[in-house]
Amino acid sequence: MSSTVADLERERQAVMEWLVAAGHQPVHSYRPSSETVRDGCLDDIAACDLYVLILGHRYGFVPADDNPHGLSITQLEFRRAGQCRIPRVALLRTSIPDERLSDLQDPARAALVWAFRAEVARAVRVAEFSDEGGLIQGLSTGVQGELDKLDKLDKRPGRPAGPGPEGRVLRLAPRPVFLAGREELLAELDTRLADHGGTAPRVVALCGLGGAGKTSVALEYAHRHLAEVAVAWQFPAEDPAVLAAGFAELAAQLGAGDTTDPVVSVHGVLADRPGGWLLVFDNAPDRASVAAFVPPAGPGRVLITSRDQIWPPGQALDVLVLDPQVAAEFLNDRTGDQDRQAALELAGELGGLPLALEQAGAYIQAGGDSLASYVASFRQRRADLLARGEPTGYSKTVATTWALAFEDLQQATPGAVSLLRLLAYCAPEAIPLHLLLQPRPGLTQQVQDGVAPMLAPLLEDDLAATDAIAALRRYSMISAPVDGMVSVHRLVQATTVDQMPADLCAAWRQATAAVIEAALPADWKAPGSWGVFALLLPHAQAAFTDDSDGMQTITSYLGYSGNYAAARDLCQKVFDARVRVLGAEHPATLIAHASLAYWIGLAGDAAAARSEYAALVPVEERVLGAEHLETLIARGNLARFTGLAGDAAGARDQFAALVPVEERVLGAEHQDTLIDRANLAAYTAEAGDAAGGRDQFAALVPVEERVLGAEHPETLTGRANLAGWTGRAGDAAGARDQFAALVPVEEHVLGAEHPDTLTARANLAGWTGEAGDAAGARDQFAALVPVFERVLGAEHPDTLTARNNLAWWTSQAGS
């Protein structure tokens, strides 16, 4: 079947559908191949029994190689069919539905179109058509006439009367028109289905989400290997009755003698048939539905497509979505719009799903739209566009492809739909089900009444959760769990959301946020909790609203784990949202404001942090009270950043006034009291009394170790300060030794790249130099500066200090 593509896409599809319905096997050559376009197309022509040409008003692609007369592929195909004496049927479009897709406004190419049309008219009797009805009438008449001629030739003396036991038996859907990014998958299929000398057929099940292109991959494989088999047959396998009927038809084609049981008859013929065979079971619900139909013996290959992921070891082969770059290139080629950025954005929105990509491409081409315009529309009207478009090679859209799956899940396993709704509000990748699906007292009371009964079994019953996971895997709605984590395609999430009314959407989003927040560790300062926070972080950001307590917790984790800039940026969003939703003086807003000021300071701008706290403290004293815990914490941070901004004496005096209040209100051993005693000691030393600061830390550290624990971050900070002020008080070797003992503990507790660990390493390097080893200090700073630049940034004050120290100790070492 030959034609230009851009102007005759609908006609091509109509012809293919008619040929398949009439029991024929169309062949067309627009696919990836190691051959040149010219050679691949002409070789396919030579292998066919009948040639059908659809000719419009476009000349088509002209290959550069081995084409001295500059003819289009379509014209070369027409001539090759004539050279091979293959009967030719020509269908000539007389109308021009879309002038933009014709060549008639280009004088040079228009002349080529008219010359080609004249050549066809001289060579064969053409059937003219102006609409689809005329096209099909001309096609059916022409094809039947040529087949009648071939049938008369087949009945000459000495020729077989029918397919018989040794004739080729063939029924496959047309080869995919558009197929991209599947060469590695096809190579893996080649390897798995290659003959390894066994007596049983080789079996592979192509598994994947609806719309992932499983059938397209299977058909491409089948067409590539047609020359290697005597039988190639595709069964619709979704319905057992239709599948059984397909075996009855194949039994007749194979000339099976006893057809009382067509399945047994086909198995018997294939077991002994020479030449090899290939059976494709398309869209099988699961293994059990096709187990009785798969031949048990014979030199054959069995290829199954299914959404179900659960198959015997070695049989399943995942058909994944396309890489973003491949998907973008497909969209550029499919639409003719070379806007690469828009193609990448749309590929991301569609998650690389082949059906969605083809559907979008067909819609853009049909409507004359641009990629950029489609992306903008998709972001506004996603559900509408997922139900529109006529994708070539697919009978359904994304919306209709998944609608039946959702209905089946709702009827058979309602818990699976509940789980899918929960996952729809997470990030798509690496969802830690092992953390989310756990019983948590009181959690279901935090969600709306309409959702609680559906959510509770997933959290409280392991079997119900496992059943839900298995049901979703049967439709490839989620990936196979790995280390307790699954992934969900972003369009599955989107379609799940789009199918719910607005009030139910809001209820499930709130429920998902509650489940994630309940899974967050209680102590974000504890390094042992940071791994769990890291797993939940992308899902929290997807589900939480900016003004929520959960998002505030996430900012604290980011900051205390050392990612100060990320904490600052996220906290700005939390603060802005709370001002908008709650008002500037709501207690929750004041907490967010204090956190924002804190992370601004630790991210490198102490003066800005001091200014934020100077504005905040009077508001907290008025709204919360002068001795409220949040007010006392804010006063402590105001004093701290006063010192970090350069006013050590001012910081010392503020802490000297604050500590007695905290001891009276909070208690002498309250954590916040201990923190501010440490700050008082530090700024006593910074203001000029190094020995006094050292002595205060010497008294404080044992209390911190007893109250907080030897490895608590505040205890480690106290030890670092004691070491530093030991050195500043004149004992450089003592400072060096204390830091040498401290650094391994901080690396173990906080991590090798935590800012506090890096600071301790810098102090160890500095006091190594002060104790007399300039070269050792130089080498330690040389190793440390690149880490500071990567972790904190090239212009962070601590990075600049480390660079300055590297220069200093380099000079002290003699250079």
Characterise this structure.
By secondary structure, the protein is of the alpha/beta class. Among the domains are: 146 residues, Rossmann fold (3-Layer(aba) Sandwich); 150 residues, P-loop containing nucleotide triphosphate hydrolases (Rossmann fold, 3-Layer(aba) Sandwich); 63 residues; 121 residues; 76 residues. It is 60% helix and 6% strand. It contains 36 helices and eleven strands. The strands form three sheets. Strands 4-6-7-8-5-9 form a six-stranded parallel β-sheet, with helices on both faces. It starts with 8 loop residues before the first helix and ends with a helix. About 1% of the residues have low confidence.
> So what's the CATH class of the domain at 169-318?
Alpha Beta
Number of helices: 36
Name the structural class. Answer: alpha/beta
Let me know the largest β-sheet.
6 strands, parallel
**Rg measurement, Å:** 36 Å
CATH superfamily of the domain at 169-318: P-loop containing nucleotide triphosphate hydrolases
Strand content: 5-15%
- Overall helicity: 55-70%
- On the 0 to 100 scale, the average pLDDT is 88
Write the layout of secondary structure elements.
Layout: H1 9-21, H2 37-46, E1 51-55, H3 73-83, E2 88-93, H4 107-123, E3 127-129, H5 132-154, E4 169-171, H6 183-193, E5 202-207, H7 214-224, E6 231-236, H8 240-254, H9 262-272, E7 277-282, H10 287-291, E8 300-306, E9 316-318, H11 324-335, H12 340-349, H13 354-367, H14 371-380, H15 382-386, H16 398-412, H17 414-423, E10 431-432, H18 433-436, H19 452-460, H20 462-474, E11 485-486, H21 490-498, H22 502-519, H23 530-543, H24 549-560, H25 564-581, H26 587-602, H27 606-623, H28 629-644, H29 648-665, H30 671-686, H31 690-707, H32 713-728, H33 732-749, H34 755-770, H35 774-791, H36 797-812
Parallel strand pairs: 1-2, 2-3, 4-6, 5-8, 5-9, 6-7, 7-8
Antiparallel strand pairs: 10-11
Helix pairs in contact: 1-5, 2-3, 8-9, 11-12, 11-13, 12-14, 16-17, 17-19, 17-20, 19-20, 22-23, 23-24, 24-25, 24-26, 25-26, 26-27, 26-28, 27-28, 28-29, 28-30, 29-30, 30-31, 30-32, 31-32, 32-33, 32-34, 33-34, 34-35, 34-36, 35-36
